[in-house]
């Protein structure tokens, strides 16, 4: 994504032209093709065309200005409009099960508040409904703040060495941070508050996702510890202190300490390059204003577009990383993957990737079909070894891909298999997770232990899911039916 925005900065600089006038059309999605490349960005929001070949895309975080020939307008009913129609149908049906189905649909589509609202609708229809009463009990746990425990804060400070860091609490998380206290212009919240809001959204979505499928997890009795470094360098120093084996894009979870750690993605080396471009454009914009030079309006709009794209990308990377690592922490604290059990990489990363948010700069729901994840799956689909079910379940994928210098294909495979099993074989998956959670953790995985564990994983998998050949055929068919938002909208256009 960072590379895409860098290309985008250059592309817009080359293709930007003059003249804005009266609007003539609106749309729901903008597919932006980076000139001279095959890179695309899908942005939600309305589009207005102008005379002179320009177009303005209204994003929740501001307006973006493009050359009209570089975008494709994709009309599609918004999630909000679909929800409104289905809500009317539910009210007319007076059916609790239909209300719960809509609540689950809302949850998958990133509409958490609407999902909770549907529980209230269902309650008014029939408050004696057994599953609904269990959901109501869960919501009482979720809505209540856990008691403040000074030992939780002390543990986080002692481990990080963060005596000078600030503490901000939410209902279920304690965030230790040194983040800037400036409030975001769009949300009106500080960076720490925005991260806590996201963590709470992931928290509620996680519990409700399982509850809608009949699994009621017990929420932790203490706040979960999270550390946010405002500087990438401090994060890397912590990573080196831990032995250099936990290096991730922007965060990691430590099961022994039960702490998640992140850094502000805007302070990385990649973003520093973008910030330098943005700084130069701001200076040029101010000069254009003062001198009233020809084409000043175009330059001002261009500079604002680049600034906004950097902002969207920065927030998007933070949302993706925080949602991924939060799931690691939640599964470890709710009994799905006990902290003292064996760490089966594809199992843990598959679950975290399934819940990971993928859309730009917001929580996008559960089970999103991410372009990167499904792209890596498709590359390896026909590989007789690396693409096989046996290879993935044995947990060889991450080790092999690491030797090849890129573990992203292994993430794609783990995501793809988990996506299928979670959606189509959920009960069997829960049995499999329970059995895996009973495996003992090994201090060191020798080649002999690794092979023995691989055989054990395959045996457990077969016991839980049955014939592996039949299952793999079902999985392949399922994956062929999955589409990214871009692919789905493109099909609707034809």
TrEMBL record:
Keywords: Signal
Listed InterPro entries: DUF1570 (IPR011464)
Pfam families on file: DUF1570 (PF07607)
Ranges of residues in domain DUF1570: 318-436
Signal peptide (from-to): 1-27
Keyword Signal: yes
Name this protein carries in UniProt: DUF1570 domain-containing protein
